[in-house]
Amino acid sequence: MTLTWPFWLVLALPLGVTLWLWRLPTRGLIVARSGVYVLILLAMAGLHLVLPSRAGLVVAVADRSLSMPPDAPALQTEAINLIRLHMDAGDKLAVVSFGLRPAIEMPPGRGAFAGFAADVGLEASNLADALETAVSLIPPDTPGRIVVLSDGLWTGVEPFAPAGQASAAGVAVDYRQMARSRAGDLAIAQLDAPNLAAPGEAFMITAWISSPLAQEVPYELVRGQTVIASGKHAVPAGSSRLMFRDKAPQADTCQYTLRVLGPAGDPLSENNTARLLVGVRGPKPILLVSPTDSTRLSGLLAAGGLAVRKARPEQCRWSLEELSGLSAVVLENIPANMVGTEGMETLAAWVTQTGGGLMMTGGRDSYGPGGYFKSPLEEILPVSMELRREHRKLSLAVVVALDRSGSMAIRVPDGRSKMDLADLATAEVLNMLSGFDQFGCIAVDSTPHVIVPLSDLSNKDTMRSHILRIDSLGGGIFIYEALSAAASMIAPATAGTRHIILFADAADSEEPGDYGNLLDRCRKAGVTVSVIGLGTERDQDAELLKDIARLGGGQVMFTDRAHDLPRLFAQDTIVVARSTFLDEPTAVRTTAGLAAITPERFAALPSIGGYNLCHLRPGANLAAVTTDENSAPVVAAWQAGCGRALACTAEADGKYTGQLARWPQVGVFFASLARWTAGDVQALAGDMVLTQEIITGACRIGLYLDPRRTDASLPKVPEVTVLKKAAGGKLATERMQMAWTSADLLEAAIPLAGSETIMASVDVGPSGRVTLPPVCLPYSPEYAPAAADAGPAALDKRARATGGIERVDLAGIWKDLPKKPRLTPLAPYLLLAAAVLLLGEVLQRCTGLLALRAGPIVAVGRSAVAAARRVAGLPRRMCAAPPPPAEVPAEQAPKPAEPAAPTPQAPGVLDALSRARSRARDRTKR
């Protein structure tokens, strides 16, 4: 036995004093009360019984990486539930899954396993961290065992150290192999080339091919979209080399893709394609993105001495590989939906984190009307695009009809529902309106429900709270009901512009009814209708929504990202308000801020035919401004993070360019703006060299210092900013500091995963900031040919090192848990015994039924007599109860004497005896 909290025993002293000062009348009651105190004290002190037990914890570690078979999740769930079914009382089960990172899918307990839900990143197998997490879940001195459900292929840190931790803790690591067949796998084991080349430099590309047998392998090498080599190559069994030669083009980032054709039935076709990135030094071109190929702006920029590359929005991928070969991007009157939210996020991060440049020109499809309000690009531009009351000419009445069908209850990755984001989008419309506008809101499923009746905005807070409480109640959206209810609500509006926004699921819009006649009546009444569809233009009801917008005289916008809804609702409101693009000729004047952008001297700027009404942000440099009552910025610029951003709200080439188009210096003007946006060529001080290479699945960046330098060290440790983006994934940004590895070398290691591309920028303080070319792995390491120390051999090695086995019988794992001393708490039993003993004491004091000796009435009577004598003031020896009379044989008993006359008793003694008897009767209830 042992005590876990022995300090409570100090209470024994005050409890003993209590028993001494307030003694109970009988010895039995004293013993009972003492027993209660002792039992409670032992319970408080944590009395435990030490017994050997096998009841413990089993942790199942499931591999969820791409190298696992397609049916692995189902097989792993089945195995985990089989282990759970054979648990005994006191046993617990936990589940850890892993890929790029580990996650606790189910904490230790006895509940059922519902399946895998955590996002662990499937393009790596971080077995080391998974084992470390599993060991941490098993408490010390608790029987534990780990079972790994994996193919044994691991990436990252070698998992031997965590296995040693498990062995030191007495935890065996079992395994059950679940792997896809790799027999007959033809693979590109490695693809190498220089990370950086000079323009026109010739270099070699080397590929290592792993083949299970001698065969002839077809191959094709592509640079970008151009095939530069193809044919067939005879390879022996094992590893062989395939070499190519290429010449670096002008400054750019070249992407090479090598494909080999494996035999029929190749089990891993994913490793038959590998990619490679090669950066080219030198000045980089500017990308001009324009809606047409005939834009005049590209010629103006080229005439100004700039290297320009033209593209239409649909030709741009907005990838890190593409942006890394550019110095700046110019968006010429391009709507935001043609760039896309993902493209805008990548473009904004490229500017702010790597030193790129962004220039935006004006037009009806740019700035606010183009959908850039509340977009990722608005955050980095030196102008804002909100509606302001002082610039509004007409009041606006808006009614929003919201789809709240069952599909709106679906959750997006951040945990919110689609309905939540639609509510936020509707609230954004409300926020943009002013006090002289009108607003109403209807939620629609099979019937319309008025959330906010059409009214002025005198009580915005109440209206907003009602909107944000709209929830999905199931069913589908009836389109005709939604349009009819919205038209009825907006009919009495008195605003100069009346508009309906219909939000609906592009794949679940029902019962359109005779919407054509309804929209015809709306158009005749001066009411316009726009549609925002959640989905894509390929969904089954997309054509219906397009037709509603066409007949309603509004615009239609689709998005399959619910997070875009607030931006799209705001864009439609801005377009309807018609106050953010002014299409009248306007005079312009320059300011002193223009000198900070260009050394060119322009005496005066000609008038422009129109401009986007924006507002200068605090801290931005104003270079040109309108001379009308708005005094709005025409050219504004600022430093956006590490890069530069410039806004030109005038149209560069088109209907609203005005006199600017015929100005002789227009080419020099726009070229000067673009040149400032592109910035200067980045370079480090002459005594520093920056290198980058991929080693064992990680990008290692090294900064070499001149060993002959005279300064003691760098002013600060350089910081590395890393942009990461996988194909179809979300852009991520990471920052880390370089570490000294020698007196003249600082290094940073950036792990690479799967298909992601990373681009690093190194800030060396006063010496400058350099953005390195992007790098990537050939393909996900999960598909790489298995190494000799991976697979079943790796699992068996780790298992034997910890005393584990290959676990064929999963149900028997509980019987193999080691017996370990286990503390069994006795506090519940001690407290129960104390309660029983206390109840016995109370019963004895009230009834006397539990006396330890016979004659309770006689004992009580004697006690009463003694008490009476004490009251009468008799000596103490006379107050004691008389002893019981001795038994005398009948024949020896003396004859009774004649009764004597009664001796008068003192009245006090008789009264005392009477009172004593009365008290005795009260106590015994007799």
Distance between the termini: 48 Å
What's the CATH H-level superfamily name of the largest domain?
Class I glutamine amidotransferase (GATase) domain
Estimated structural class: alpha/beta
Major beta sheet summary: 8 strands, mixed
Low-confidence stretches: 852-881, 899-907
Report the mean per-residue pLDDT as an integer: 86
Beta fraction = 25-35%
Q: How many E-type strands?
A: 45
Radius of gyration: 43 Å
Count the domains. Answer: 7
Structure write-up:
The chain is α/β, with parallel strands linked by helices and 926 residues long. The chain folds into seven domains: 2-52 and 824-847, no CATH class; 55-182 and 786-818, von Willebrand factor, type A domain (Rossmann fold, 3-Layer(aba) Sandwich), CATH 3.40.50; 187-280, Immunoglobulins (Immunoglobulin-like, Sandwich); 286-385 and 582-678, Class I glutamine amidotransferase (GATase) domain (Rossmann fold, 3-Layer(aba) Sandwich); 389-579, von Willebrand factor, type A domain (Rossmann fold, 3-Layer(aba) Sandwich), CATH 3.40.50; 688-782, Immunoglobulin-like; 853-882 and 907-926, no CATH class. The chain has an eight-stranded mixed β-sheet. The protein has a six-stranded mixed β-sheet with strand order 23-22-21-25-27-28, with helices on both faces. A five-stranded mixed β-sheet has the order 5-4-3-6-7, with helices on both faces. Strand 33 (621-626) and strand 34 form a beta hairpin. Helix 5 packs parallel to helix 17 (792-802) and helix 6 crosses helix 16 (666-678). The longest helix has 21 residues, at 827-847. It starts with a strand and ends with a helix. Residues 852-881 and 899-907 have low confidence and may be disordered.
